[in-house]
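Fold description:
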Amino acid sequence: MLIGYCRTSTADQNPDHQIDALLRHGVGRGNIHVDVASGAKASRPKLDLVMQLLREGDTLKVTRLDRLSRSVLHRVTLGTELRERSIGLHVIEQGIDTATMEGRAMFGMLSVLAELQRELIVANTNDGLASARARGRVGGRRPKLTEDQAALAQRLYDEREKTVQQIADMFGVPRSTVYGHLDREKTVPRQPKKTAAAKP
């Protein structure tokens, strides 16, 4: 029996290209299983199900090796398990068929290259972040208040001219944003306002 496996990294990615390729290569639509998960994750529900469904003499079909996993260790482990269970692996777009000696060799070489590619992507990303930090830029969302606005909010809070809610309304931001910019540990203790003594 032929069983197909597809994977997309995010929910907004479309697996139709993979599904169409598997259908063209003889996999029945009911035997195609799709995961939405990062390739770095070793455990994926549909892949786990596929590994349970496969029996001796079956063939697992995928479009590319990186659909199985981007980790060499995980991929080699899967390949070893399939081979020990006498289950074939056919990687359509890369022409790998582990039923042949050449296919098994190609499987190993492409696994190493895929892992190298992933490590290069991670290294380039880290280099870019380090370069940005060196230039004073950091990742994540920009503060919703500018430095001047934050300083004004601090002064208004310290001098009890406005409440946190009034400051938030003034800048059009949530109270949590104002609280996030206030250094309340360094503020002057807020004494209650004096009320005029009642005349006798």
Remarks:
- The CA atoms of residues 32 and 67 lie 13 Å apart.
- The longest strand covers residues 2-8.
- The helical segments are 16-24, 45-53, 65-68, 72-84, 101-134, 147-158, 164-171, 175-181.
